[in-house]
Amino acid sequence: MAKFLSIRDAVANNLKHGDSVAFEGFTHLIPHAAAHEVIRQGFKDLTVMRMTPDIIYDQLIGMGMVKKMIFSFAGNPGVGLLRRVRDAVENQWPHALEVEEHSHAAMANAYEAGAAGLPCAVFRGYLGAELAKVNANIKSIICPFTGEKLAAVPALRPDVTFIHAQKADRKGNVLIEGILGVQKEAVLAAKRAVITVEEVVDDLDTHTNACILPHWTIAAICVVPGGAHPSYASGYYDRDNVNYIEWDAIAADREKFLAWMDKHVLKAPPEIFAERVRHLRASA
Amino acid sequence: MSNDFTPDEMMTIAASRALKNDDVCFVGIGAPSAACNVARLTHAPEITLIYESGTIGTAPSVLPLSIGDGELCETAVSTVAVPEMFRYWLQGGRVTIGFLGAAQLDKFGNINTTVIGDYDRPKIRLPGGGGAPEIASSSGEIYITMKQTLRGMVDKIDFVTSFGHGTGGDDRQKLGMTTLGPTLLITDLAVWRPDPVTKEFTVVSMHPGVTKDNVQATCGWTVKFADNVEVTPAPSVLELKTLRDLKARTKAAHEAPSASGANA
Predict the structure, then answer these.
(1) Residue A255, class by beta-carbon neighbours within 10 Å (0-12 exposed, 13-18 middle, 19+ buried)?
(2) Which residues on A lie below 8 Å from B68 (Cβ)?
(3) Range of the structural domain that residue B154 is part of
């Protein structure tokens, strides 16, 4: 049953050191405010998973909170490489990072298998791809009906999934609109789900086939306006593309990165996100 | 025709010409995205463009910075969840063309976007495959576009992220693939097609003013040229204007100053 909590309490009540955690959002609705709260609370030895690790994983990894990352594309979309992830992989800074690398198709299928209660995902993939040689979790299975060799990967079942969504009603049913990514699957695959929303409304005011997560699938809901910034929330504010471009220079230097994190995350309250998106609301 | 164009513009326009109105194209970000949208804005207005964020039949007015920019969703015929995108639409065989870029490419169209150097001790850790490994195997055929450099077009790629024709010949069929794989490579200097038997990329057309020496000097393998290498038609006035307008709109949209104060 969803509890309405502050993001501080929601993170403290649901996450433990050493947990496996998914922060999902496919370019759209990335849960930045939730990730910043996790960083402020100083969790260690996390196994983090995400199809497209971008700025928040650069931050979690650069702050030394991550033991292992499961992913399928680690880049700053449209800008370039992730400087902190690279520093961890290439130079073990701030410490060594274990990686389990997949393709998008594999990760999407693995979340779906997790949501479906299956032990593994089966799909036609990784044909000729060298990832199968460096990732022991990529295996194959023979179709018992046709004899076709198919790829198999273990289901993803995070201890906690964090997502950001547009709105919840007062019972705690959550509506996601626009680019949906793998959020529904990541929530249903997880033991506990924490969702930040832009607002709480009396009526979700949507159509019968909308993507809604019922309140009883969610552990906690937190109202954090602007909580996806610099990602976006369709209908609320636009993507802050300039912020993504600027991140490249901040993340390129260890000292600059640590100073930025100190000022904008460690010493900043979650309420700051509402300020950050103010100028992006007009055209959304 | 126009004589005032850059090699980059020629590359994008040559790539756009390969796309047809009835194609269903899975679009990679960067150069492929520009080419696909020039095609849509010129000779192929009905083309179905799909980005891996789940947007099907999208028609953005500016090039997206990421594969999930809001405008892709707002202008799409439908937006589906990412597992559905990969399962029903790509794996289900609905995509006729997969359009990819590459960090490293070999002469058989195998692509590396994972690492430069050793996988466990990389010299450069690149972003990785994303959707590309399955786009490469499940799309009806693959078009590739990239700028020629000795570092990019190499005899042996450091990591096979996405399988092209392997070591050539019928390597794809041996792995059970029924799709055609790479059938076209468009660079800033030339248009290449695989040899029907060996599957080695062969230059069939060079862009205006380009020589065979230019092509070889920026390619890490010994280049094969067709018996009759044609000259790529120069961009038309409309093609060039469409591309430049698109780039100008994109620049204005992405580089508007941020006022969030988030990085101050």
Answers:
(1) exposed
(2) 26-28, 77, 179, 181
(3) 7-252
